[in-house]
Amino acid sequence: MNEIKIDTDYITLGQFLKLADMIQSGGMAKWFLGEYEVFINGEQDQRRGRKLVDGDQIDIPGYGKFLIKR
User: Fold this and answer.
1) Segment holding 4, helix H or strand E
2) pTM flag (> 0.85)
3) Which CATH code of 3.10.290.10, 3.20.20.60, 3.40.50.261, 3.20.20.70 fits the domain covering 2-69?
4) CA 27, 31, 32: angle at the middle one, nearest 5?
5) If we measure between CA atoms, which residue out of 38, 44, 33, 41 comes closest to residue 57?
6) Side-by-side strand order, sheet with 43-44
7) What is the pLDDT of residues 46-65, one digit of tens each?
8) Cα–Cα distance for residue pair 20/36, rounded to 1 Å
9) How do residues 12-22 score in pLDDT, each as one tens digit?
């Protein structure tokens, strides 16, 4: 599981995708979420504004599993 470090209380799912190098710009988040299934703490979620906090686990089949750490 890959750890993604954040300096703030939370980041959005769109920001996470950019931080994890899955997309090159924030504008690509909507496209990415429309093409791929994203599971946050075991539940599917496609909202790019979804807030991710310390301890959240993100699973993107084909890309890997990630853990948000503060």
Assistant:
1) strand 2-5
2) yes
3) 3.10.290.10
4) 100
5) 41
6) 2-5, 64-69, 57-60, 39-40, 43-44
7) 999 999 999 999 999 999 99
8) 15
9) 999 999 999 99
